Here is the input.
Amino acid sequence: MPEIIALSALPRARVGKGAARATRREGRVPAIIYGGNDAPFLISLEPRELKRALARPGFFATLLEVAIDGVRHRVLPREVQLHPVSDAPLHVDFLRVLPESRVRVQVPVSFINHDRSPGLHRGGILNVVRHEIELDAPVEAIPDRIVVDLSGLEIGDSVHISAVALPPGSRPTIRERDFTVASIAASSAVREEAAAAAAAPPPAPEPEAAPSAA
Amino acid sequence: MLSPKKSKYRKAQKGRIHGLAKGGTALNFGAYGLKSLEAGRVTARQIEAARRAITRHIKRAGRVWIRIFPDVPVTKKPAEVRMGSGKGSPEFWICRVKPGRILFELEGVTAEVAREAFLLGAAKLPVGTRFVSRAGEEVAA
Here is the structure.
């Protein structure tokens, strides 16, 4: 069971960009809780608490408990709008989750055993094709990350989703193809070395001993 | 240097750069990025200089993505030519950059190396920039 982060929130009354801007002028971040067969609920959050939660890897795969006037709502972050320059949160969408339901979540991928990969050891680059994988998972067992083991991978090898161990109950939403999660690519330095080795002339044969003048 | 393979019109108007970037404001490929904080016209030459500075610092170990493309032609009149007689000839290509735009992305190096590489690359650019990383990436690296 992953960790549940607690956030405190205040209710807000009005919808729309004017009301949202007024909330931001007060130094708070407007947000909404929707879904779960209940009416949408407008709230505002404390920006520092929210930023701390956002800085954690896998924010969108983390269950949150938003406390509003003593009532706790179990939610899953769905979208965070960020300021284009400062990356400060402008608005957050939360999905109210019901126990024993399934959700689609973007789970971050983390890589282990870099030092046990001969390809990386020889100067290859870990080319991360998917930093996050969308999973269909039960609410109570959303993985906080997907671990990919790099042991034994050579330059040119790829890790596909079929080779990744997923937690029980979770399955990728893309099921029609075995998509690539990461690959070990040759760096430009390694490619140049290989090209130079291929272009070099073969070693000259040993010159035969000159016949001695009789 | 980057330049379009072909263009619909040979010459473009100067234009003005207003507002903030609407897209390309988040990291899409790498773990680290260089974000523009100002509006400006970045030339193909400056992009290439920054790219070289970055790749040389990372010693060609990681992978670099360029997230901007110079597709606006800039014309110039020859020296000592009187005004008039039409617009000058295209001289170079620029990219109009708005604040918030990710300029470069980097993967396969540690956070310190990426930060230093972007510092060197940013010195070649005419806009103020900021180092950005994915959530939790800097701690892990």
Summary: Strands of chain B lie at 32-36, 40-43, 63-66, 72-76, 89-97, 102-107, 129-133.
